[in-house]
Structure formats: structure tokens, C-alpha cells
Design goal:
The complex is a heterodimer of chains A (about 375) and B (about 400).
Chain A: H1 7-23, H2 26-33, H3 41-49, H4 69-81, H5 88-102, H6 104-115, E1 121-124, E2 140-144, E3 147-158, E4 165-171, E5 182-188, E6 194-200, E7 206-217, E8 222-223, H7 230-265, E9 267-268, E10 271-272, H8 277-302, H9 308-337, H10 347-360, H11 365-376
Parallel strand pairs in A: 1-4
Antiparallel strand pairs in A: 2-3, 3-7, 4-5, 5-8, 6-7, 9-10
Chain B: H1 7-23, H2 26-33, H3 40-53, H4 71-83, H5 91-104, H6 107-119, E1 124-127, E2 143-147, E3 150-157, E4 168-174, E5 185-191, E6 197-203, E7 209-222, E8 226-227, H7 233-248, H8 251-267, E9 269-270, E10 273-274, H9 279-304, H10 316-338, H11 366-372, H12 383-394
Parallel strand pairs in B: 1-4
Antiparallel strand pairs in B: 2-3, 3-7, 4-5, 5-8, 6-7, 9-10
Helix pairs in contact in B: 1-4, 4-8, 5-6, 5-7, 7-10, 8-9, 8-10, 9-10, 10-11, 10-12
The chains are: A alpha+beta (about 375), B alpha+beta (about 400).
């Protein structure tokens, strides 16, 4: 049992943290997220080609640094601290995770492209009617010769406007909510018949509604077995869930630090408001939520490799705790700032917005509590 | 970073498990199953078993009788003793005054007191709080005036846990009235059989006699029983408070507590199903488990993370706050789970009593435990004081 980071992991964190401090200050970020494309592509290229950061979680045989979930957590926490909108989560954690799990020619072909910064992959899994149920799919992939024909509507696909590829869940069989019949496809994002409606998200990123209209896809786009893809989808979504817990930890730490700093500057009744015990204790409660979010992220990350049921219980425990903590820390950061906290002016409100979106992403606190109970508290 | 136990750790886990199975006193097991209160002899029975094995003070340095275990082994030991529902060891000697003596004491104090703490020969109590000094501990007024080689001590202490059994007490006393509050305090070891000491019981909400008032009237204490320098007792007190707080997280015991609540909820009926099927009750247990996991991994980070080995710091206040809240929630859930049978005031069986007990065994201690455990957020530095400590020492406010 060991809860320390390796030298390589410390180096990854330090390198990334220095780079982001230089390139991702709040004003700069606001400029590029409000530009037409909504991002600065040079940052992604530098992360890949100069820092080697996109390879941190891939094996050395694919050209990476040999890491895994812990390295993903480090990167995500640092991105959280600067409100990074880089598509690391869908590209490296989710699509990279699926490719690592499947292996073979597909992994050999695509992973080096991810590491090089050439591939950006968006994860098209959610559907308007499905809420957080990964099997609730109306999108279909009908067998057609050697390939498939894709039809359906995917909602709120983060990073889709920037994507070179889409990772898509679709039914190759079964009824709308069956566990069987779910398949996972990695396809070119610009195939004929893919219609996108792009929009900004409230937390500073970009996303799309995606409509597949008789999109012909090749047979080798299928990742894993046909019709039995749900277990793989659950696994990569669990990996993603823990990764956004790590991001949330970074976001929450900044919300807490920003509040500490502000209360020591802001004077009322002739003294810095940090002198008031009611605010001190509030900030201690925020501190405890940040520390526990960090603990739960580590717990969830270390348990990703356990058998599915234990993994799911651990991930749900982590997400539940982190979602509750993010809610508490975000709301109290705004309350403690007072009026200035509800303007667009300060960074604090933007951290609050990202924290709020993370609460619901890949399942709310209640969703994860339900899943946790089904696994651990069966009567 | 990993959670794996090495083959050596797994062998150690088996050794501990087997040892408990073969050596845990059977009469204790029976009393616990009946939900009876524990006596001094009960606590000492398990203490002596561990002492004879050399396992009574895992946290102590090896030179003074510690085990030399790694943090992982200490974690395994506390998990296994909690899993087997062993009674807890009294902390006053082993976890409190012992570390103060081996850190600050003279060679003579170490040679005399440490072996007696380990063996259980001396039962210790803590003379800190006074009627006028609770959270503001440094305002204490019990005074020690030098008289030749002795001090003459006068004053009153309160909330003195288990003082009715104690052979020795460690006391904070004022030795300089004119110094700033914290700078005029000394740390004295006092023989509880000394003339002038009176111990009076305080009965708490659950009906227990755990705490006492201790009156000191012209009590003569040799100056050789002062630990560390005169007027430097606050240094010992702060050191001790940090030690007291780490144990207070109580993760392993709370894990066991969760299993007990679940067992009750599986037994109790709610309609035609078990109480555990009630979605509201189930949700409270689930949230408690999740919060306990968060506490556990926060403690593991401090035990086996980058700061391991530096000793408990101010962040241990977090463990005290969250640990005590969870202990209280557990007793609250137990009381809720037993329903009607929380009400009967059951004081154990009298001599030759052949009556059936009232209600299920697990219900006997539900209400008294709930009442009793309100103490956890008050003692050891109230949770409000712990928040002050974090605000000052961690957040720099």
C-alpha cells in the first residue's frame, strides 16, 4: 500500500502545471473560448508534440510514457485548475481507453495519432431520451454488406465541433433498453450523412447535436464484439467518471483558494471579511470537501482495475461524494464573494459553472447513489 | 501509488486474524453480544492479551515497546481488530500520556511509567478540563505552588473519564499566574491515591458512569513528576491533542458499526420487507458508507502518502471532525432502526434474573449509545475548536 506519486508522475504534473500557468491565464482563455472556433489549436499541438502529454497514459509500444489512469487523473486535475477546455477527456481518457481495451490493429493505427495530437475524438453516447442510462439507445447501426448504416440522434456531444473522429454507441440488435445489442464504433467525423448543430456550452466548451442520416460506415469501425459492447462502454464511462472527479478536484481547489484570497482582501465593517468566524468555518468546510474529493478520486482511480461490480461501486461512491462536494464548494464560493461572484467578471463564477456541469456529467449524485445501492446494499 | 498488500502484508494479516481468533477472551465476546457495558477488568483482559504478545502499542517507537510495524501493517492491525469487534483499548495511557512521556519525559520517568502503561498495571486518567475551562483550555486555574521538592496542588477538574478506576492522572496546572495564559502551565503526573484527591461521579445521558469531577485539595506532588520544563506544559498538551485526534477518526470501528446497523436493518421489518428495503433508510446507510470511504482514504493518504512519518499535523483536525460526525450518525441510524424498542431502559441482568429481556438484544444499547456519542463532537477539542485550528494552521486565516 503506497499513496505517493512516482518521480515521472510528479514531473508530468509539474511540466503541465507550468505550461498551463503560462498559456491558460483567465483573460487568454476567455478570448479563445469566445473566438469563432472556441479554442486555441496551438495549445493541443504543444501538449502533444512539445510536452508529450497526450502520451502520458499510453504504453511505450504505442509511443507513450507507459502510464494509465493515475496519469489521466493528474492531467485532468491540472486542466481543472485552469478551466481547461482541451478535449483530453473524450480523446485520451475515453477513446484512448476504449482502444487500449480492444487492442489490435485499431489501437495500433489510432493511438499514435492521438499521441501526436492529430486525432481529436468526441464521444457520442448520450441521447435525448436516455438520461444516464448507457443502454437506452435509439441510434441504430444496421448491417449492410461488410459495413453498417448508422441512423439516429446524439445529444450534447462535447468537443464534436473540433473532432476528427467520433466514438459512437449504437444498437446492432435488441430493444431500446436491452443490455444486449449495444455496439461501439469509431468513425471519421466527416462522413457523408453526418449533420451537426454546434453550440457553446455554459461551462466554456463547445458541443453538438449530431444526426446520423444513413451514414455508411466500414466494418472495421466496430470496436470489440458486435452487440456485446455495453460492458466496454460501462468500463470507459467509469474511467471517464473518475477522470472528471479529478478535474473537479482541481476546480474545487481553485474555488476554495479564490475564496480564501478574496475574503482576505474584501473589507466590511472595517476588517477583512476573513476575520469573521462564520466565514472561516465555512471555508474550513469547503477545505474538507476539497480534501475528500481528492481522497475519493484516488480511491476511484485505484479501484478501476477491480472486477466490474467492485469497480462500479467505487466509481459511484467517488462521483456521489465529489458531486455533493462540488455543489457545496461552488455555491459557497459564490455566496462568500457576494455580488461580484454572480458576475462574469471574476474567474470564480466560471469555476462555479464548470463545477456545476461536472455534478451532472456521467450521472448525478442521485444516479450514482442508486447504482451504489444496487450493488452494495441489496437486501 | 497502489492499494495492494504485499505477500508479507498478507501473511501478517493472517497472523493477526488467527491470533485474535485464538486469543480474544470468550467472556468479552459474550458480553458484547448481549450488549452489556464493559468493566475495567473487561478492558484490561484484552489489553493483557495484546501486551503478552507485544502488540499493545503499535504506534510507539520500538525502543520503548512499539512493534516497528509499517503504516500498512498498522492499518491491517486496526482493520482486523475492528472486523473481529475487539473492545477498544483505553487511550489515556497508551495513546495519550505514554507518547508525552517518551517524547518529553526524563530517563527516570520513562523507566518507571512506560513499562507500567504497556502492562496495564497503571490505569490513567486525564486532568485537563475545568468547570470554567472547556474549549478555552488555557484559561485553567488549578494551581501548583512550589514547596521544597514538591508542588502543592489545589483546584478542580471535570469530565475526567474513568477517573474512578485510575491509579494515575496527567494534569495541566498553572505554575505561573502572571505569565500569558499558555506560558504559565505545567504538565504533572499525579498519583490518584494521594491525600486530598476526591473523585465524584457524573452520570451522563445514557446512564453511564464514565466521567467524573476531580477535586484537588492541598495535594502534594513531587516536582520529579513534572514532565518537561516548568511552564512548558502547553507544549506537551498540544502534542497530545494532535495524537488524540488521529485515533479519533475511528475508521475501522465505524466500518464495523456500519455492518452492525445493516444487520439490524436486515432483521427489522418494515411492512412485508426488511427495513433495509426502505429506500429512505437505505439511502442514509449508503451516504454514510460513502462518507466513511472518503474519511478512510483521507486517513490513508496521511498514513501512507508523501507526509507519512511526519507525525500528525493540523490536518488531523479534519479526521476528528468527520470521524466524530460519522460515529454519531451510526448511533442515530441504530436508534432509528430499532423502532419502538429504543425506549425501554434496560440495565442488564441482575443476579439470578431469569426474566426474558425486553426487546431484541441489539436494541438495548441503541438509545444510550446515541445519547452517549453526542460527546464525540465535544471532547478532544470540540469540532468548532477543530475548525478554528484548521482555519489558523492550514488556511492561514
Amino acid at each position: 500500500m503506497d499513496f505517493t506519486y512516482t518521480e515521472t508522475q510528479d514531473m508530468i504534473r509539474d511540466t503541465l502545471s507550468r505550461f498551463l500557468a503560462d498559456t491558460y491565464d483567465f483573460e487568454t482563455r476567455q478570448k479563445f473560448i469566445n473566438s469563432d472556433s472556441g479554442r486555441d489549436p496551438a495549445i493541443w499541438t504543444t501538449l502533444a508534440q512539445e510536452l508529450g502529454m497526450l502520451g502520458a497514459a499510453f504504453s511505450e509500444e504505442h509511443g507513450g510514457l507507459g502510464g494509465g489512469a493515475l496519469e489521466n487523473a493528474i492531467v485532468m486535475e491540472e486542466l481543472g485548475k485552469v478551466l481547461g477546455i482541451e478535449p483530453y477527456l473524450p480523446t485520451v481518457v475515453i477513446a484512448g481507453g476504449a482502444l487500449k481495451a480492444v487492442g489490435g490493429a485499431q489501437a495500433d493505427a489510432v493511438i499514435p495519432e492521438i499521441i501526436a495530437g492529430n486525432a481529436i475524438i468526441a464521444f457520442a453516447y448520450a441521447e435525448p431520451q436516455g438520461r444516464y442510462d448507457l443502454a437506452n439507445l435509439r441510434t441504430t447501426a444496421r448491417k449492410d454488406g461488410a459495413g453498417y448504416v448508422l441512423n439516429g440522434h446524439k445529444g450534447v456531444v462535447y468537443a464534436a465541433p473540433w473532432a476528427t473522429h467520433l466514438l459512437v454507441t449504437a444498437r446492432t440488435g435488441g430493444a431500446q433498453r436491452d443490455r444486449d445489442g449495444v455496439s461501439l464504433f469509431l468513425i471519421d467525423a466527416n462522413l457523408p450523412g453526418i449533420v451537426r448543430r454546434d453550440y457553446p456550452t455554459v461551462d466554456g466548451s463547445r458541443a453538438s447535436e449530431i444526426y446520423f442520416e444513413n451514414v455508411a460506415i466500414p466494418g472495421d469501425a466496430l470496436l470489440g464484439g458486435e452487440g456485446d459492447g455495453l460492458a466496454l462502454v460501462e468500463q470507459i464511462v467509469d474511467e471517464a467518471t473518475v477522470a472528471i472527479c479529478a478535474e473537479a478536484t482541481g476546480v474545487m481547489q481553485k474555488l476554495h483558494e479564490g475564496t480564501l484570497e478574496y475574503t482576505q482582501q474584501r473589507k466590511q465593517f472595517g476588517v477583512p471579511i476573513a476575520k469573521f468566524q462564520v466565514l472561516q468555518h465555512r471555508m474550513v468546510d469547503m477545505f474538507m470537501e476539497v480534501e475528500q474529493a481528492r481522497s475519493m478520486t484516488i480511491m476511484g482511480t485505484l479501484k478501476l482495475s477491480l472486477p466490474a461490480n467492485e469497480r462500479m461501486a467505487a466509481v459511484s461512491a467517488a462521483k456521489n461524494k465529489v458531486a455533493r462536494g462540488a455543489n457545496f464548494v461552488g455555491q459557497n464560493a459564490i455566496q462568500t464573494h457576494g455580488g461580484i461572484g454572480i458576475t462574469q467578471e471574476l474567474a470564480i463564477g466560471h469555476y462555479f459553472k464548470r463545477a456545476t456541469m461536472i455534478e451532472g456529467q456521467f450521472g448525478s449524485a442521485d444516479y450514482h447513489m442508486d447504482r451504489y445501492e444496487r450493488i452494495t446494499l441489496a437486501d | 501509488m497502489d492499494m495492494e498488500f504485499s505477500p508479507e502484508d498478507l501473511a501478517f494479516q493472517k497472523e493477526v486474524r488467527d491470533f485474535i481468533a485464538e486469543n480474544y477472551p470468550a467472556e468479552l465476546r459474550g458480553k458484547q453480544d448481549e450488549g452489556e457495558e464493559m468493566s475495567k477488568e473487561d478492558f484490561l483482559a484484552w489489553h493483557k492479551v495484546l501486551y503478552n504478545k507485544g502488540w499493545v502499542a503499535p504506534a510507539w517507537p520500538v525502543e520503548y515497546g512499539g512493534t516497528g510495524w509499517t503504516p500498512t501493517q498498522r492499518f491491517i492491525f486496526s482493520e482486523e481488530t475492528a472486523r473481529a469487534d475487539c473492545v477498544r483499548l483505553m487511550p489515556f495511557g497508551l495513546a495519550m500520556v505514554g507518547p508525552v512521556i517518551y517524547t518529553f519525559g526524563t530517563p527516570e520517568q520513562k523507566a518507571y511509567f512506560l513499562p507500567r502503561i504497556l502492562s496495564g498495571e497503571d490505569w490513567w486518567c486525564q486532568g485537563y478540563s475545568e468547570p470554567g475551562s472547556g474549549s478555552d483550555l488555557a484559561s485553567l486555574r488549578t494551581a501548583a505552588i512550589p514547596d521544597g521538592d514538591d508542588y502543592i496542588v489545589n483546584g478542580q477538574k471535570t469530565w475526567t473519564t474513568m477517573a474512578q478506576y485510575a491509579d494515575w492522572g496527567f494534569f495541566l496546572v498553572r505554575t505561573d499566574k502572571d505569565a500569558k495564559q499558555q506560558e504559565g502551565i505545567s504538565f504533572l503526573l499525579i498519583d490518584m491515591k494521594s491525600p486530598g484527591i476526591t473523585v465524584r461521579p457524573i452520570i451522563t445521558l445514557g446512564g453511564e458512569h464514565e466521567v467524573n469531577e476531580v477535586w484537588l485539595e492541598d495535594v502534594r506532588v513531587p516536582q520529579s513528576q513534572r514532565v518537561y520544563d516548568e511552564n512548558k506544559g502547553w507544549t506537551c498538551a498540544k502534542f497530545l491533542l494532535a495524537h488524540e485526534r488521529t485515533g479519533i477518526a475511528g475508521v475501522a470501528a465505524s466500518k464495523r458499526g456500519v455492518e452492525k446497523v445493516k444487520a439490524i436493518a436486515r432483521t427489522e421489518l418494515d411492512g412485508d420487507k426488511s427495513l433495509l428495503s426502505n429506500p429512505f433508510f437505505k439511502r442514509k446507510i449508503a451516504e454514510l458508507e460513502v462518507d466513511l470511504t472518503a474519511l478512510e482514504f483521507t486517513e490513508l493518504r496521511s498514513l501512507a502518502g508523501p507526509n507519512a512519518g511526519r507525525g500528525p499535523g493540523p490536518e488531523s483536525s479534519l479526521l476528528k471532525i468527520k470521524g466524530s460526525e460519522i460515529q454519531q450518525r451510526l448511533t442515530e441510524l441504530s436508534l432509528e432502526a430499532v423502532g419502538h424498542y429504543g425506549a425501554p431502559y434496560f440495565r442488564g441482568f441482575g443476579e439470578g434474573d431469569n426474566e426474558h429481556p425486553i426487546g431484541p438484544d441489539y436494541a438495548h444499547r441503541a438509545a444510550p449509545s446515541y445519547f452517549n456519542m453526542r460527546k464525540t463532537t465535544i471532547y478532544g477539542g470540540s469540532n468548532e475548536i477543530q475548525r478554528n485550528i484548521i482555519a489558523k494552521m492550514v488556511l492561514g486565516l
